[in-house]
Write a structure and sequence with these properties.
Helix content is about 55%, strand content about 15%. Strands 1-2 form a two-stranded antiparallel sheet. By secondary structure, it is α+β, with helices and mostly antiparallel strands.
């Protein structure tokens, strides 16, 4: 099972699972600094929990962060645990 350090990081993972977003948008919505969000995403990417999808346009490259199949399974397990403990 995925090790989540604290509630804020777990909520950040849930946020990623809700909708693919870029790192800066995730940081803002997750109330994290860009460097903390980037570090978490990089660590979870190495663990195969999230993936960075690259979208190229004429002007720039955009990375959208999404859950992998493994990441989706982990989120589902964490939500079950939260429900068992009575946490919304």
């Amino acid at each position: 099972m995925l090790e989540i350090i604290n509630q804020k990081n777990m909520n950040f993972l849930f946020l990623i699972g809700n909708k693919p977003r870029n790192i800066s948008e995730l940081a803002k919505r997750g109330d994290l600094t860009l460097s903390v969000a980037s570090t978490l995403i990089s660590r979870w990417a190495r663990m195969k929990v999230v993936k960075k999808r690259i979208f190229r346009s004429t002007w720039r490259v955009k990375f959208l962060i999404t859950l992998t199949e493994y990441g989706s399974e982990q989120v589902a397990e964490l939500k079950k645990i939260m429900e068992t403990k009575g946490t919304p």
